[in-house]
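seq:
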Amino acid sequence: MPQTQALPDLARGRSLPRHERIVELLAEKGMVEVASLAEEFGVSTVTIRADLDALEKRRLIRRIRGGAMALRPARFERPADLPSQSFSAEKERIADLAASQVRDGETIILDAGTTTLAIAHALSDTLTDVVVVTNGLDIAIALQGHAGVTVIVTGGRLKRGGRNAHSNSLISPFGATLLQEINADVAFLCCAGVDAVRGFTNGNWEEAEVKKAMMASARRVVFVADHGKIGHVGSARIAPLEQADLLITDHGAAAADIQALEAAGVQVAIA
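struct:
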């Protein structure tokens, strides 16, 4: 991408796909070099330095000599002001596979998140007598026109997802109260990280508590996570891997990572 195209976007504070990928690379590696980033993206080192300066101003990275380092290596919650369309194609495939498992007459829980929002959109129009319990306001709104779905919102305090994120969620207080009265067939949950040792984690403790309540209210638990979350560890633990019945991810996940997750006790499906 020519430098003249990148700089105006940076001046307006707009997130570029390249910025998003830089943050993801830092989460994976902990540190990146200007020269390697320029080679990977096919742009000049001047453009990369401008990218890193912009990301540092947004407090997403830390600049160092010749590159940048992650603020919180391997323990992060994806920044809310990065585009919610990250891995959008992968999320759609994950959502299609998850939605295909929903049957007429079931009660399902949809956790707040972009992938679960995609599940809501992917639910078949032919479904009947399905109850969806959700703490995601965007999910509730997305399903309001589905004739075969009854929507129940959990209640609680509103946690806004950010100006670009479709993840406005309801959390404590009262975020888990209704869930204690629910007997769901399956809960579809999002997370910030999936690790063979640390299990399923999130970057927000209040959200993690609601997720735990969702798991306790469902006969079957399915986590949905794009490959960008594999190997990451958030600061709030949700559950060990063996407490989930299934993890649905995409084909971008490394085979070695999938083998490690399955060896740790969770069945993995690739969308």
